[in-house]
Amino acid sequence: MKRAHVGTHCALAATVVLAFLVRVVGQWTHVFGGGDVRLPGVDPWYHLRQIERFVGTFPQRPTFDALALHPAGQRVGTAPLLDALVATAAWLVGLGSPSPSTVEMVAALTPPVLGALLCVVVYALTRRLAGRGAGLLAALAVAVVPGHALSRSMLGFCDHHVLESLLATGTILAFARACAADKTNVARRVADAGVTLGLYLLAWKGGALLLLPLAAFLVGQQMLAVRRGHLDQTAPRCSAALVIAALVVLPFSGSLPGVRFHVTGLVLALLAAAVPFVVRRMLGERASAGRMALGLGAVVALLALVVGVIAPDVLLRLVRGLRWFRGSGLQQTVTEAQPLLVEDGAFTLARAWRHFGVTLPLALVGLVVLARRAVRDACPDHALVVAWTAAMLLATLGQNRFGYYLAACAAVLTGVVLGPPLTRLWAAAAGPPVWVRRVLWPCAAVAAIAVPLAPATLRIASARTGPRAAWVETLDWMRTETPSRSDVKPYGVLAWWDAGWWIAQRARRAPVANATQAGARRAARLLLERRPDRAAKTCRERGIRYVVVDGALPMIPAADGELTGTVPQLRAWARDGPDELVATYYLEESDRSLRPLTVFHAA
């Protein structure tokens, strides 16, 4: 192995270790310091519950959870791959009979391991585009970038998002390799792409999101090939990979949430590969970009008409799915579902800076650079990364939660922008002294990426989320001191939806509302009910035995007169929340100015 390669691998290994430590050190005492495992956030508690149940029935995965929602339970709504991965690892570590503490330990350590592995995939993809130096810079960027990419891969945050990001980036890398493979290894590369895409679809029920940029890439690449006057092998290779992905998903279709979107997305992607290829063949020597566009437009219009007549529900599901990625209505009451550039109802760049720092403006420059190269050279891997980044940027602008995808894109493009000039400087035979070229400038580039990100990264790395001590005490009391059933039926526990999974997993009781927002409107109306006798009657009729509230529930006026707390969300969900809950008065100051004072009449 060449000395340069050894140095690169050592630097990459150091970056992977750094990524793991950033995600573990600040959270270790919080997650493991209380004598048991306390996961951060909300959704990880649901995954832990399903993993524990999976281990108990291994290798069969339960598909229904009676305690997920009062009174009728709820179908398990998450894709199976993360739960299967953690359950299998725990089963192996526990030699076929893992203890609950072993399951919790494996579940807590899985996210930082996956987050560290993302650095390797980002490095490999960036290296294809711009060389080893660019790959190392990209790996460093994704290791320390704050926002959802970091928070979703922290110790204990056992949710499927970090697995999505890893497999989505791996899918782009695998398709890039398949498109550029020579005849000797094309079959293996195509198979790798298909299997990786299939695993990604098994990791998230909304995995059709990645199929949209794939479809756009397939159409755009063939249009570029027509412009350059040559036949392109991207379509048949990607079509084969899509078929392999469908075969990977097929055995799980009966229990896979969102499988209809997967099927629709795979069909659309296959059409995006096949239709331009067929149109090109039909036009033959007369093929041109203009004629291809007209031919594609006619075929797409015909297909839409046929589908609209034969199966209008398919088009309706597709439109609704696209609206879901945009984020609207009641989703706006969930912080992570709000637009990236809107905060407190006003346009702002602050959230974008907190989530991505300097990597986002660098990524926008890199996007232009790659787009120019893709158009000029009809290079498949460049065009694929452009389509992927553009789609993830639009998704993140609609809902900031998709930043855990965009972070990988931004890291790749950051490497594309900064890597080549540093590589040329490193290899230059003349110019600045060697220590400047090979030490000072690389360190300056690393500092330019890491230093602006450090405050937000450290803040997330040391943040304390999840149930507070009072919640843990309440949940443990509920589990040990309250009956599990009322007469012959299970009873419900009323709390706002973000505590639902804590109640189901830690207390082993059925919540009235959970983090899927199921039951949220019913819970909101009960929590806003101002007549105690009516509230008590409704609870008896619906089998609700306990109500849990905390200090975050009331509306708390801030210094600027704005309201914080949960009640504004309750009123949005209840729709008919009483207006008399809030009254705003104005106090005259000594300078005769008016200061708003918001009064909350407790329900």
What structural category do the secondary elements indicate? mainly alpha
Order of strands across the widest beta sheet?
6-5-7
Work out the number of β strands.
11
Head-to-tail CA distance between termini:
71 Å
Major β-sheet, in short?
Answer: 3 strands, parallel
Helix content: 55-70%
- Total helices: the number is 24
What characteristic shape results from the CA principal axes? globular
Taking Cα atoms only, what radius of gyration do you get, to the nearest Å? Answer: 26 Å
The average pLDDT value, as a whole number, equals 85
Low-confidence sequence ranges: none
What percent of residues are in strands? 5-15%
Q: What does it look like?
A:
Helices cover 64% and strands 6% of the residues. It contains 24 helices and eleven strands. The chain has helices spanning 3-24, 28-32, 43-56, 81-93, 100-130, 132-144, 148-151, 161-180, 186-201, 208-228, 234-249, 259-283, 289-310, 312-326, 350-356, 359-377, 380-398, 403-427, 434-461, 469-481, 500-507, 520-528, 532-542, 567-574, and strands spanning 64-65, 74-75, 342-343, 346-347, 492-494, 510-511, 544-547, 556-557, 563-564, 582-588, 594-600. The strands form five sheets. A three-stranded parallel beta sheet has the order 6-5-7. The chain has a two-stranded antiparallel sheet with strand order 1-2. The longest helix has 31 residues, at 100-130. It is globular and about 80 Å long. It starts with a helix and ends with a strand.
